[in-house]
């Protein structure tokens, strides 16, 4: 099982170590640092590294490396999943996951890690359970604690830990009972030069924020559940009922959680909300090139496309650029050669356009590669797959909760090839 | 207020300050001090000097303080064992605390203090906690057993903790079950043969119940444990699959992949025609696709596993090509894996899409990725014949880009395309030649030289091209040098008039100026060949090349099977069996997939996981030594340098030598590599074939000149006309007494490749019989009726009818004892009757059972000697020729015959309907009625049955 965890910042400094079995020397990380040196980008460090006595499994997240050391045959996915949980836990407790935050809450992070694993076996990874054992810091609580001398650590046995619904804490009480669901869809797509869809799919997720007293039993139904043939659920969802009736029936965890993720990859169902006309060309002789990009709405179902942003990794040999945008503004970092054009809201009457010249370093050959365009966008109040929530029913409790559903469509990995 | 304040120090020195605070009377101050200590510890500062002061804070009812002290203890107890003893009492006391949280915390922490002295005190509290009324304490205690085992395995066994742990598998609480399984799995890893996880249908049921209720992590442990179980039959297998499938929709990818492992393994046992089998296949695709939308690290592990799954069952993902398309910001390790899978999934149906993608990738930034993409195009051409033309034109387009590394990769793959489709795409050679100068990598240069040599007759200036390479001959890598040598010799053989000078130059460069033995020896061989017999040289050098196979990088099937059993583990990431890399893998067991179509031994093995070294359920594919290997051997023969150095030493004696060199050399090679004769060297038949060895013959070739294999090869089609297959006489299988008047006798036969069951049904009762039907129980070779029993007219009293029932071998498989036992049920209007009969295994011998000689040699060698069994056939008066003919009638093919000291050795091969090969060596001595037969087979169980067939065939 998982032996140790090291948190490493991008410059290679280890700023936290935790061992669940015997202590493993820090020097084991040298193999990792070596691999990191070799990789061009921090993202490119291989996730599984074999050293003479250990295996190093790492993830790169929020500009930090989470590196775990294992000694025996352990499913690597198990380790990777766990490392992501650690990152999520830090995010959840302290609002962000960064080196500063971890350093500021060193002892609490350490206590949390101790609760998450025992001898390398996962112990409590549900945020509901953890929060009951170790309360997240708030300004009010730290003041109260200093005054009264009480601690952040709960001292009663958690009912949730042993019941068949370990994800929900007992005795929840709210004055305002509310249940909100966000249906978020991300479009992953690759378009080729001519704008034809090479590949497109939708990654959907239903995020829930449920603040209901007692033990509510919820049933969420969709207008068109047939859309969803590939789903994964939070453990609280009763799978049998989904299989037979296509409804989500569950006793929710308290607070924020991901109820379900789904996946629509039938090509005809994936609408592409924008089109991009682009040309990036370099002149055969000379050291100049031109860039011309126009973005326009395509299948938007009558909604406005906002937050449009185009990102281009320009070739390394570019020396400088001189562009004009008819809408929004662009930034260009000559170090990373990253061009970001922030357009904002898309106006169908007047299409935004970015054009101008690129100049290459003197004597550099015509770049061999074609840079791809990465598109970002957002559409409020629309799930692009057409998924709609029908109704939410609650059983088991008497009060009437506030209910709400919000839809949003975003671009995931949305790329246009040139 | 943050913890960073804990790092501030004062002038007096940190440790001193902390010590004072730890001994403070105020609770709050104490706690703050301990926090400071812990903070220092987490960043790797040494605060062990404070040990006694921190331990003093342990006696408290403040849970947070207690936990903090425990954290400290776990870290430093090892370095201060004597001090740690001080803490023992508190632990023991805490284990009795009314609060289960404290009991659990105490037992958990105690296990983490890796000090021998403490473990002794741990035993009693642990025993109590394992039986605690609170499941939280039990679940914590279960893990503690694993900790203790890690420190002192003997102690755990002596104290009987392992048995208690096993009992916990039947605990009422699913978390306890999950933790017990996890602990046992970890312990079992260091005790591969301990049978700790002795799974039976009852415990499996318990696990499946717990699976639905425990945490996601527990599910992983349980699923991994389930994967080690081998169901008794396909029904149990199906029911487990049904209960595992919901896990495919879990949000945790590790759960999903573990479930995939269980399903992939148990699916193996389901009959393919079952509806459920198809449903299951369909259900596997979406979760695998979903894994690819997760974080890149998860994707990587998923892709490595999908690579295995695609090789084992390509049908699962064949429609999902698009999800493997590469996005430009995928990390490089994901890109390379996706590319691999794309090629594996490439087929005629999707090749256009794939090629368009690959062409796109070939213009990306990352050099490694681009190279692999170009290579992939070549692999597509070789894999999907219909696409070859398009691939070649894509490659030509890429060559036009003039990007150096793209051009080089393209040339390397075009060489392979030429090999695969000779005389089809040579029109592109001109384009290739234009790029000669830009090639700077050995592999690309060698490929280009090979192309020039191979097509020398079509390239006008081939000699100039090759000559240009020759200038820097000594600076080239060996690969290029060897290729250049061969290419020039080819050129010379094709255009002898103009290139004599060139060939002399290269031969002398290779033989005189090079110190590379491979190069030198190949040079000598060519030299000798050319100088003695150019015609023979032509035949050797310009011989037709065997076609290259489609998939060169497939994982070997037995390894693949083992890896499938390890889906989701490190082994699946490395594509190596765990024994190959897991540290301290104390005899890691080899896992095998359960058998469906094999001879059935897999299904009844109590634990397939333990069947290490056992025979593979399906006959493993024989490893065919490629022509290349033999040639390689030939070239590596270390010849003594000839005494003459002139380029044309063509005396008649030399000519003889040259001939013998090859003739004898080849034979002797064959002899060395064939284990059939054994004592060839000493046999008088040796050396008689060829005349005296010429004086310049290298010593190493002197002894075994001519010989056995020459004889073997001469046999050719010398086997006489085949006779009909042996059919045993009919016997009564079901006496009328037992079957209410129905008597059944019958036999089995193989006619024109169809297995027939020939039945004689006699009605000895007083009433008419109708509505006949027949069914077989599962049997070793999957025999099943291929059609209904054709008894159309009612069978009147005292009537007899002969029916022949065609059989297929695709029915369900179960190992029977004896192997060839068949249980049959026959139904008529009166009742259902059961009987069993034994069939001669010879009816399973298929018509294409004749092995290639080389394959035979290699296979014979490859099968371990343990699998060889010897039998005597007594009182048989046939000569070897007649025996061979007779056997051929029953699809026992004689591949070769050799006569040694009046004893005929017949080498024979048999292929069973389920793909098992049996190799046989039959010794027949003239005048001796007793034959000796040795049988070699990867599934030695069948040997006895095969021997019975030999006996039956030969004696009838």
UniProtKB/TrEMBL annotation, chain A:
Swiss-Prot/TrEMBL keywords: Cytoplasmic vesicle, Golgi apparatus, Membrane, Protein transport, Transport
Recorded family membership: Belongs to the adaptor complexes medium subunit family.
GO biological-process terms attached to the record: intracellular protein transport; vesicle-mediated transport
Annotated Gene Ontology cellular component terms: clathrin adaptor complex; cytoplasmic vesicle membrane; Golgi apparatus
Species annotation: Oncorhynchus tshawytscha (Chinook salmon)
Summary of the function given for this chain in its UniProt record: Part of the AP-3 complex, an adaptor-related complex which is not clathrin-associated. The complex is associated with the Golgi region as well as more peripheral structures. It facilitates the budding of vesicles from the Golgi membrane and may be directly involved in trafficking to lysosomes.
Name the UniProt record assigns to this protein: AP-3 complex subunit mu-1
Recorded topology in the membrane: Peripheral membrane protein
Residue ranges of every copy of the MHD domain listed in the record: 176-417
Coiled coil: none
Record-linked PANTHER family: AP COMPLEX SUBUNIT MU (PTHR10529)
InterPro entries per the UniProt record, alphabetical: Adaptor_comp_med_subunit, AP2_Mu_C_sf, AP_mu_sigma_su, Clathrin_mu, Clathrin_mu_CS, Longin-like_dom_sf, MHD
Major place of residence: Golgi
Annotated compartments: Golgi apparatus; Cytoplasmic vesicle membrane
Listed Pfam families: Adap_comp_sub (PF00928), Clat_adaptor_s (PF01217)
From TrEMBL, chain B:
Domain Beta-adaptin appendage C-terminal subdomain: 845-955
Top-rank taxon, per record: Eukaryota
Biological-process GO terms, alphabetical: intracellular protein transport; vesicle-mediated transport
Gene Ontology CC annotations of this record: clathrin adaptor complex; cytoplasmic vesicle; endomembrane system
Cell location: Endomembrane system
SUPFAM superfamilies reported in the protein's UniProt record: ARM repeat, Clathrin adaptor appendage domain, Subdomain of clathrin and coatomer appendage domain
Topology versus the membrane: Peripheral membrane protein
Major localization listed first in the record, in broad terms: membrane
InterPro entries: AP_beta (IPR026739), AP_complex_bsu_1_2_4 (IPR016342), ARM-like (IPR011989), ARM-type_fold (IPR016024), Armadillo (IPR000225), B-adaptin_app_sub_C (IPR015151), Clathrin/coatomer_adapt-like_N (IPR002553), Clathrin_a/b/g-adaptin_app_Ig (IPR008152)
Region span, Disordered: 593-625
Keywords on record: Acetylation, Membrane, Protein transport, Transport
Domain Clathrin adaptor alpha/beta/gamma-adaptin appendage Ig-like subdomain: 726-836
Compositional bias segments (type: Low complexity): 613-625
GO MF terms held by the record: clathrin binding
Protein family per UniProt: Belongs to the adaptor complexes large subunit family.
Name recorded for this polypeptide: AP complex subunit beta
Native species: Oncorhynchus tshawytscha
Gene name, Swiss-Prot/TrEMBL: AP1B1
């Amino acid at each position: 099982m998982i032996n140790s965890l090291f948190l490493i910042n991008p410059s290679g400094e280890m700023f936290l170590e935790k061992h669940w079995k015997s202590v493993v020397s820090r020097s084991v990380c040298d193999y990792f640092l070596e691999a990191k040196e070799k990789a061009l980008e921090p993202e490119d460090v291989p996730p599984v590294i074999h050293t003479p006595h250990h295996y190093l499994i790492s993830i790169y997240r929020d500009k930090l490396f989470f590196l775990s050391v294992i000694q025996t045959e352990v499913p690597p996915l198990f380790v990777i999943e766990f490392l992501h949980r650690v990152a999520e836990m830090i995010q959840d407790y302290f609002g962000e996951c960064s080196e500063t935050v971890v350093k500021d809450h060193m002892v609490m992070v350490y206590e949390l890690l101790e609760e998450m694993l025992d001898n390398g076996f996962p112990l409590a990874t549900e945020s509901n359970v953890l929060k009951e054992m170790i309360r997240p810091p708030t300004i009010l609580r730290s003041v109260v604690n200093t005054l009264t001398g009480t601690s952040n650590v709960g001292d009663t046995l958690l009912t949730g830990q042993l019941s068949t619904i370990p994800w929900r804490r007992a005795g929840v009480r709210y004055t305002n009972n509310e249940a909100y669901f966000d249906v978020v869809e991300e479009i992953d797509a690759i378009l080729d030069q001519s704008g034809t869809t090479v590949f497109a799919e939708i990654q959907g997720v239903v995020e829930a924020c449920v603040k209901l007293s007692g033990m509510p039993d919820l049933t969420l139904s969709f207008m068109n559940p047939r859309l969803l043939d590939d789903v994964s659920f939070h453990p609280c969802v009763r799978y049998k009922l989904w299989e037979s009736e296509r409804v989500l029936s569950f006793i929710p965890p308290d607070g924020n959680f991901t109820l379900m993720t789904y996946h629509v990859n039938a090509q005809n169902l994936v609408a592409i909300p924008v089109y991009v006309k682009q040309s990036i060309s370099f002149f055969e002789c000379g050291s100049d090139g031109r860039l011309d990009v126009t973005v326009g709405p395509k299948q938007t179902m009558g909604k406005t496309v906002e937050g449009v942003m185009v990102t281009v990794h320009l070739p390394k040999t570019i020396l400088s650029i001189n562009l004009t945008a008819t809408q929004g503004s662009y930034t260009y970092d000559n170090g990373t050669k990253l061009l970001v054009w922030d357009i904002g809201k898309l106006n169908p009457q007047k299409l935004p356009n970015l054009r101008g010249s690129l100049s290459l370093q003197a004597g550099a050959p015509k770049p061999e590669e074609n840079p791809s365009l990465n598109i970002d966008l957002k559409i409020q109040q629309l799930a692009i797959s057409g998924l709609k929530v029908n109704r939410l029913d609650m059983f088991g409790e008497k009060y009437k909760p506030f209910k709400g559903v919000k839809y949003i469509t975003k671009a995931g990995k949305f790329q246009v090839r040139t | 207020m943050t913890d960073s304040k804990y790092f501030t120090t004062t002038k007096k020195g940190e440790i001193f300050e902390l010590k004072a605070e730890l001994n403070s009377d105020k609770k709050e101050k104490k706690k703050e001090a301990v926090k400071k200590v812990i903070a220092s510890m987490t960043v790797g500062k040494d605060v062990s000097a404070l040990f006694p002061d921190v331990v003093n804070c342990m006696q408290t009812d403040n849970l947070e303080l207690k936990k903090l002290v425990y954290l400290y203890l776990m870290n430093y107890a090892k370095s201060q064992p004597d001090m740690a003893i001080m803490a023992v009492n508190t632990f023991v006391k805490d284990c009795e605390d009314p609060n289960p949280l404290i009991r659990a915390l105490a037992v958990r922490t105690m296990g983490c203090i890796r000090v021998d002295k403490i473990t002794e005190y741990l035993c009693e509290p642990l025993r109590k906690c394992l039986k605690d009324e609170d499941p939280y304490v039990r679940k914590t205690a279960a893990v503690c057993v694993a900790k203790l085992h890690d420190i002192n395995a003997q102690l755990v066994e002596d104290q009987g903790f392992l048995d208690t742990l096993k009992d916990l598998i039947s605990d009422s609480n699913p978390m306890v079950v999950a933790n017990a399984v996890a602990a046992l799995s970890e312990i079992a890893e260091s005790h591969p043969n301990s049978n700790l996880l002795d799974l039976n249908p009852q415990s499996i049921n318990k696990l499946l119940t717990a699976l639905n209720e425990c945490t996601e992590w527990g599910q992983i442990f349980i699923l991994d444990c389930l994967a080690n179980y081998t169901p008794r039959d396909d029904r149990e297998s199906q029911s487990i699959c049904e209960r595992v499938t919901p896990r495919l929709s879990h949000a945790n990818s590790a759960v999903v992949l573990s479930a995939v492992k269980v399903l992939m393994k148990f699916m193996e046992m389901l009959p393919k025609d079952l509806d459920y089998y198809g449903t299951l296949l369909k259900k596997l695709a979406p979760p695998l696709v979903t894994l690819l939308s997760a974080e890149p690290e998860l994707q990587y592990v998923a892709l490595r596993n999908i690579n295995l799954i695609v090789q084992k069952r390509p049908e699962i993902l064949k429609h999902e090509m698009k999800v493997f398309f590469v996005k430009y910001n995928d990390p490089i390790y994901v890109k390379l894996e996706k590319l691999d899978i794309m090629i594996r999934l490439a087929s005629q149906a999707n090749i256009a899409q794939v090629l368009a993608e690959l062409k796109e990738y070939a213009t990306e930034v990352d050099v490694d990725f681009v190279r692999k993409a170009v290579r992939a195009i070549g692999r597509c051409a070789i894999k999907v014949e219909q696409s070859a033309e398009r691939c070649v034109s894509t490659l030509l387009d890429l060559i036009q880009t003039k990007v150096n590394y793209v051009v080089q990769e393209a040339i390397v793959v075009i060489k392979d395309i030429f090999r695969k489709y000779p005389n089809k795409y040579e029109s592109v050679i001109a384009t290739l030649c234009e790029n000669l100068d830009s090639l700077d990598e050995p592999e690309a240069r060698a490929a280009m030289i090979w192309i020039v040599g191979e097509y020398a007759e079509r390239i006008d200036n081939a000699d100039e091209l090759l000559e240009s390479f020759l200038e820097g001959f000594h600076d080239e890598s060996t690969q290029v040098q060897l290729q250049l040598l061969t290419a020039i010799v080819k050129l010379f053989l094709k255009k002898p008039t103009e290139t004599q000078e060139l060939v002399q130059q290269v031969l002398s460069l290779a033989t005189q100026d090079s110190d590379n033995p491979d190069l030198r020896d190949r040079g000598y061989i060519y030299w000798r060949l050319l100088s003695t017999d150019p015609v023979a040289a032509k035949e050797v050098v310009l011989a037709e090349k065997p076609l290259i196979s489609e998939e060169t990088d497939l994982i070997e099937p037995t390894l693949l099977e083992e890896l499938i059993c390890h889906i989701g583990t490190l082994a699946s990431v490395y594509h190596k069996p765990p024994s190959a890399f897991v540290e301290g893998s104390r005899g890691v067991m080899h896992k095998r997939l359960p058998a469906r179509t094999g001879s059935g031994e897999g299904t009844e093995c109590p634990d397939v996981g333990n069947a290490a070294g056992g025979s593979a359920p399906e006959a493993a594919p024989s490893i065919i030594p490629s022509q290349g290997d033999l040639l390689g051997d030939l070239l590596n023969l270390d010849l003594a340098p000839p005494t003459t150095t002139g380029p044309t030493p063509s005396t008649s004696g030399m000519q003889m030598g040259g001939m013998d060199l090859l003739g004898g050399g080849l034979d002797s090679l064959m002899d060395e590599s064939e284990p059939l004769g054994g004592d060839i060297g000493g046999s008088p038949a040796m050396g008689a074939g060829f005349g005296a060895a010429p004086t310049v013959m290298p010593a190493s070739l002197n002894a075994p000149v001519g010989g056995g294999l020459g004889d073997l090869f001469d046999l050719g089609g010398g086997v006489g006309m085949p006779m009909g297959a042996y059919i045993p006489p009919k016997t009564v299988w079901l006496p009328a007494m037992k079957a209410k008047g129905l008597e059944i006798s019958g036999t089995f036969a193989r006619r024109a490749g169809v297995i027939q069951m020939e039945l004689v049904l006699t009605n000895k009762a007083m009433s008419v019989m109708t509505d006949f039907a027949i069914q077989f129980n599962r049997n070793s070779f999957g025999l099943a009726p291929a059609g209904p029993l054709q008894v159309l007219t009612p069978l009147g009293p005292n009537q007899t009818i002969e029916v022949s029932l065609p059989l297929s071998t695709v029915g369900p498989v179960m190992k029977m004892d004896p192997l060839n036992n068949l249980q049959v049920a026959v139904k008529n209007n009166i009742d259902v009757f059961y009987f069993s009969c034994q069939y001669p295994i010879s009816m399973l011998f298929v018509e294409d059972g004749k092995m290639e000689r080389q394959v035979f040699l290699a296979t014979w060698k490859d099968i371990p000697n343990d699998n060889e069994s010897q039998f005597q056939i007594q009182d048989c008066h046939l000569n070897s020729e007649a025996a061979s003919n007779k056997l051929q009638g029953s699809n026992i093919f004689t591949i070769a015959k050799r006569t040694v000291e009046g004893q005929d050795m017949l080498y024979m091969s048999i292929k069973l309907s389920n793909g098992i090969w049996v190799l046989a060596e039959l010794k027949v001595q003239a005048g001796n009625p007793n034959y000796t037969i040795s049988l070699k087979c990867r599934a030695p169980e069948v040997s006895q049955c095969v021997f019975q067939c030999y006996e039956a065939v030969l004696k009838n």
